[in-house]
Specification:
By secondary structure, the protein is mainly beta. It contains 4 helices and 29 strands. It is globular.
């Protein structure tokens, strides 16, 4: 949870903005037979491999001064609380020409079905501004996470990011491979506007299952204050330039804060940690595994603003990383100093106490940052989606994410749309969801 981060990410900590730790859990292949038929891959889908790329039809040759490629590994489809399957990922666009280009449209297509348009994608900023066909510009001196950071124009010799949240009604509708039909315009020597269309950016959707976890928290009123998928929250916004690669480490990370019975996260002076009623909440292992990293001696921060002295090493605050198997690692961050109850090398069981929710590290309000990644690093990794085996969907915060953050820090109570509330199994909370864990 990070109001200041939503408002302005200081250049020196852009890499850290998404560093609010997270969590993961063991692979659920053994549970595949329990899943509804609509949530299982067909045998034809399962049989498709990277080798199918050689059999793709050849697209018409088009000279495209813009080029676009996938950032990170193959996206993994995951079912959200809206009942839809989400394929969330980013494309890196580069203008290799000497003229500016303007994006007109981006369509996701299935190359194995004559480039038929598939799914639908809509993404918005924290202010609910539609940026579905706009690029997040690099080298912004003071990013805001708002529409001003995005543009449909890309200058010569510049790169930018396009965020996608391609959704489907059913897992069986997700193509094994997708490409992107991009139409943009440039101005020719006679100052005429020339449309150009190209099909590229081949991306394979992963055949892996999203990992199934137990809840890391208990109680009602937990809000996904920064998560996936259609809202470009701080976690999705921030891509980390580490070791020569852009890393979407916090792609699916969640910042959990808790509302009380009156819908408030804090009462009284926001700088007093004890006024945040969920401060000190118990954090449990969402899956069993081996503890590979523990930090337990960093101080809590004063709520209300981001600290100015955070480094890459201290951004997660007091945290635990657990190897949960199958190349997945769970991160739990920002715990109270001295509260971590496990040690490196220890084998922990699902549901075991790990520590208590605090405000250490790169944070301006108490929360649990919860993340699954493919390496034992909270930053130098690719984020992975996850499902909770059980939860109560209790509603969704109304209004923009930016308004919600302002209201929380003012001690107010947001409006909650409770339609569709009820018990859910094997779904991923989405940004602004309110959920309960038993």
């Amino acid at each position: 949870m990070n109001k200041t981060m939503n408002k302005q990410i200081l250049p020196r900590i852009v890499i850290l903005a998404a560093v609010l730790a997270g969590l993961a859990v063991p692979h659920a292949r053994a549970q595949e037979q329990d899943r509804p038929a609509s949530d299982r891959l067909t045998s034809a889908q399962a049989g498709e491999t990277a080798g199918d790329r050689r059999s793709l039809p050849v697209d018409p040759v088009a000279l495209t001064p813009l080029v676009w490629t996938l950032i990170g590994e193959h996206p993994v489809p995951v079912r959200g609380t809206d009942g839809r399957i989400h394929l969330a990922y980013e494309l890196l666009f580069t203008n290799v020409s000497t003229e500016p280009a303007r994006i007109v449209s981006v369509e996701v297509v299935d190359p194995l079905r004559r480039n038929r348009v598939v799914g639908s994608s809509r993404v918005v900023t924290i202010k609910d501004e539609d940026v579905s066909t706009r690029l997040r510009q690099f080298a912004i001196q003071q990013p805001t996470l708002a529409g001003s950071d995005f543009s449909d124009h890309l200058r010569p010799a510049r790169s930018a990011i396009l965020y996608l949240d391609v959704t489907f009604d059913d897992l069986r509708d997700v193509p094994r491979q997708v490409k992107h039909r991009v139409t943009f315009t440039q101005t020719d020597a006679q100052n005429n506007t020339v449309p150009i269309t190209g099909i590229g950016g081949l991306t394979e959707s992963s055949s892996a299952d999203a990992v199934v976890l137990s809840p890391p928290l208990k109680g009602d009123g937990w809000v996904d204050a920064s998560g996936c998928c259609g809202i470009i929250s701080p976690h999705r916004y921030t891509l980390l330039p580490l070791n020569g690669t852009l890393r979407p480490a916090q792609h699916f990370a969640i910042d959990f804060i808790r509302l009380d019975a009156r819908g408030r996260a804090v009462t009284g002076d926001i700088k007093n940690l004890n006024n945040w009623h969920y401060y000190g909440a118990e954090i449990a292992a969402a899956a069993g595994g081996r503890v590979v990293k523990v930090v337990n001696n960093l101080p809590d921060q004063v709520p209300g603003q981001l600290p100015s002295d955070i480094t890459v090493e201290t951004a997660d605050g007091n945290h635990v990383i657990i190897d949960i198997g199958d190349g997945r690692f769970a991160l739990y961050a920002h715990m109270i100093p001295g509260s971590v109850a496990v040690s490196e090398g220890q084998i922990v069981e699902r549901g075991q106490l790990l520590g208590r929710l605090g405000n250490s590290g790169n944070t301006d309000a108490p929360h649990l940052h919860f993340q699954v990644m493919d390496r034992p690093s909270s930053l130098d990794a690719d984020g992975l989606p996850f499902l909770f085996d059980r939860m109560e969907f209790q509603g969704r915060i109304m209004g923009s994410l930016d308004d919600f953050n302002d209201m929380i820090f003012a001690g107010g109570s947001p409006r909650i749309d409770t339609s569709g509330s009820g018990r859910r199994r094997r779904q991923m909370p989405l940004t602004k969801d309110v959920v309960g864990f038993k």
